């Protein structure tokens, strides 16, 4: 490809990264707000949070992008630019998935920790901030890492709005050169490199957070340990 075509690809990468960062920030905020609300003591708060989660998990991200970009403007009399429409649709959709990660991690904290906070007369917010979240957040990182990679792949959906992301730029170059195999191979490699870097960053964050609470990141052993045998009769210990 010529340098001019590579500039189009690099512009697409930049747009994709912008969308990824903005939508992931929104999805993270939604995940924690809704996920914590799912554990609230008031049933109405749990119901509303659960209703949001089920609605956005049960709808297509592609249709949600269409809805935000084409349905909202006539209804409210304003127009969202493609970047913000994509950010809103992807952030709300993937935030619903992330809320289940937060809820599950909070529920996995040892109940004795909650009871200890109650014994110390901590308020619910103090128990959440000082006891539950510091222990739950490190356990959220691996599933959040997977969700972030899924969000990266989901950014390609915004190309339907004519947004010049990586997928849209690759399609433009394919039409210009009439070469599908080469162009889409480059695009796949770029997506893979970005996803690989994201997983490395998240793994480093996981190790740092677990070290902060006195834990080590779980790593699968290369070889299964052999059972030890005693010197008498070969009994397994």
* Amount of helix: over 70%
Briefly note the structural class of the backbone. Answer: mainly alpha
Total strand segments: 0
* Cα separation of the termini: 65 Å
Organism: Streptomyces haneummycinicus
Subcellular location: Cell membrane
InterPro entries: AA_ABC_transptr_permease_3TM, ArtM/GltK/GlnP/TcyL/YhdX-like, Ectoine_EhuC, MetI-like, MetI-like_sf
Domain ABC transmembrane type-1: 13-202
Tell me what the structure shows.
This is Ectoine/hydroxyectoine ABC transporter permease subunit EhuC. One of its GO terms (cellular component) is ATP-binding cassette (ABC) transporter complex. Keywords: Amino-acid transport, Cell membrane, Membrane, Transmembrane, Transmembrane helix, Transport. The N and C termini lie far apart (65 Å). The relative contact order is 0.13. The longest helix is centred in the N-terminal third of the chain and has 35 residues, at 3-37. This protein has eight helices and no strands. 75% of the residues lie in helices and 0% in strands. The chain is mostly helical and 237 residues long.
Give the topology, please.
Layout: H1 3-37, H2 43-57, H3 61-76, H4 82-107, H5 111-119, H6 124-154, H7 166-177, H8 180-212
Helix pairs in contact: 1-4, 1-7, 2-4, 3-4, 4-6, 5-6, 6-8, 7-8
InterPro entries: AA_ABC_transptr_permease_3TM, ArtM/GltK/GlnP/TcyL/YhdX-like, Ectoine_EhuC, MetI-like, MetI-like_sf
GO cellular component, one term: ATP-binding cassette (ABC) transporter complex
GO molecular function: transmembrane transporter activity
């Amino acid at each position: 490809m010529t340098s001019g075509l590579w500039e189009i690809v690099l512009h697409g990468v930049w747009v994709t990264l912008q969308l990824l960062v903005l939508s992931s920030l929104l999805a993270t905020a939604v995940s924690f707000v809704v996920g914590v609300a799912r554990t609230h003591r008031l049933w109405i708060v749990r119901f509303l949070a659960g209703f949001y989660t089920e609605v956005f998990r049960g709808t297509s991200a592609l249709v949600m992008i269409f809805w935000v970009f084409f349905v909202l403007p006539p209804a409210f009399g304003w127009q969202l630019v493609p970047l913000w429409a994509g950010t809103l649709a992807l952030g709300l959709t993937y935030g619903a998935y992330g809320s289940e990660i937060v809820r599950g991690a909070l529920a996995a904290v040892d109940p004795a920790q909650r009871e200890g906070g109650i014994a110390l007369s901590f308020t619910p917010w103090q128990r959440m901030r000082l006891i539950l979240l510091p222990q739950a957040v490190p356990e959220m990182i691996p599933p959040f890492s997977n969700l972030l990679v899924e969000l990266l792949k989901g950014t390609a959906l915004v190309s339907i709005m004519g947004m010049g992301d990586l997928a849209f730029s690759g399609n433009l170059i394919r039409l210009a050169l009439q070469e599908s195999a080469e162009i889409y191979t480059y695009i796949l490699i770029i997506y893979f490199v970005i996803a690989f870097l994201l997983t490395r960053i998240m793994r480093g964050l996981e190790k740092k957070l677990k070290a902060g609470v006195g834990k080590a990141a779980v790593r699968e052993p290369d070889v299964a340990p052999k059972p030890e045998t005693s010197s008498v009769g070969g009994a397994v210990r």
